[in-house]
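Human: My hope is that you can spare some time for a protein that puzzles me. I am handing you a single protein, as its sequence and its fold in token form. Could you go through the record with me and say what the backbone is doing? Take your time, and here it is.
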Amino acid sequence: MPLKQARCDTCGLANPERWLPRFPSELIFVVGGWSKGRAQSTIETFDHRVNRWFQFQSKEVKPRAYHGVVQWRRQVFVIGGLNLAYYLRSVDSFDLDRCKWHHHSPMHVTRAYVATAALGDHIYAIGGHT
């Protein structure tokens, strides 16, 4: 049975915006990570409007790497991860309007290399190592 020919001549015509490059409406956040043999607690933001990176330090952010980060309801959530010695189950968020960190109830299990997503009224932490 021969394979069907793809109809690429009509791909994207119904919704051409779908295939255009995207820019964030405000900032890109990078929280923590692994550098120089240890977990980091730095926070970096990129503002594409001025094409510049900004770096911050906060005592409220504990060093972590291999964690999940997701934006939900004007907050950036940092979920799980790994510090130098332990897998983490912590959940913290940064309120973009008040510029303040919040600590939330921890997950039931530790997770590093975790995938995170926000959908509707929920945040999901999927997979990872425990």
Notes: The radius of gyration is 19 Å.
